[in-house]
Amino acid sequence: MFVSVGISSGFLSGLQVNHIDLSPIHASTLVGLTNGAANILSIVAPLIVHLIVVEATNPAQWAVLFYIASAICITCTTFYVVFASGEIQSWNGHQIDCTSTQKEQARILDEAVGLEDVQLMT
After folding, report:
1. Using CB atoms within 10 A of its CB, is residue 103 exposed (0-12), middle (13-18) or buried (19+)?
2. Any transmembrane segments, and where (predicted)?
3. What is the pLDDT of residues 70-79, one digit of tens each?
4. What are phi and psi of 96, to 5 degrees?
5. ∠ CA(100), CA(104), CA(106), 5° rounding?
6. What is the pTM assigned to this prediction?
7. What DSSP designation does 1 have?
8. Read out DSSP for 67-90?
């Protein structure tokens, strides 16, 4: 279990940023979909525990459960590390051009919060 959680650090740190890498325009939608799927699947976890751990004091049953959790974690992390991409996807869409008024407003806001060095998309 210790090894699987340690290996998952690459998965978790990459996943949280990867939504923005894949689609800056749709990153919030991607986060919502992936977090929604994870939360729906987390409902299944107590049901699986109930099926595997019949006697709560039996360490062998808990060991089976931890092996299953470790296998899922290692498999998903390996899949992500091998197949994940950081390239902007074709379905991201086109960037919206800013008008000169919007650029001026953004510049004023950036100066107010100290972000003068941030480049605007044109």
Report:
1. middle
2. 37-57, 64-83
3. 898 888 878 8
4. -90, 130
5. 115
6. 0.60
7. -
8. HHHHHHHHHHHHHHHHH---SPPG
